[in-house]
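Handoff note, outgoing to incoming analyst
You'll be picking up this chain. Sequence as last confirmed:
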Amino acid sequence: MLRFGDMPEDPKAPLPPEKKDWVNYAILKIGDSELQITDHFTGCIYERGTQITIVVQTNDKDKATKYFEALKEDGQVNDPLEASFISPAYGNVTDKFGVTFRILTKGRQ
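Most recent structure output, in case you need it:
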C-alpha cells in the first residue's frame, strides 16, 4: 500500500495534512489475481470514466510500452510512460472509450 503522504511532495500542489493518510493505491489479493484500489482525492474533477481506474502491471517493460501505445490510440495521455519513483515504466492514459488505465512495470527505480 502507498499513501498519498508517502509520495514525493509537489511544491506546486501541496498535499493537505488531513489527506496524507489517504490511500494512493493498495493491492487486494483474490486467489492468484490482484485488485488495486485508491481513495478518490476530493478536489479532483469528476468526469465520466473517472470512477474507476484499471491498473495493468507487468514485469516486462516492452509489454508495458505495447499496452500503453495501444491504449493511447484515439485516447488521451495523462502521464507519459516513463520511469518514476514507483516503477521503471509508469504511465496513465485514458482510452478512446473514456476509461483510465495505469500501466506500470514492477519494481522501483
